[in-house]
Amino acid sequence: MAVDDVDVTAAWEVLNAEPRSQLVDVRTRAEWTYVGIPDLAPIGKRAVLVEWQTFPDQTVDARFVDRLAGELKALGVQLDDDLYFICRSGSRSLAAARAMANAGYRSCHNVAGGFEGPLDDLRHRGILSGWKAAGLPWQQG
Question: Which residues of the chain fall below pLDDT 70?
Answer without folding.
Answer: 141
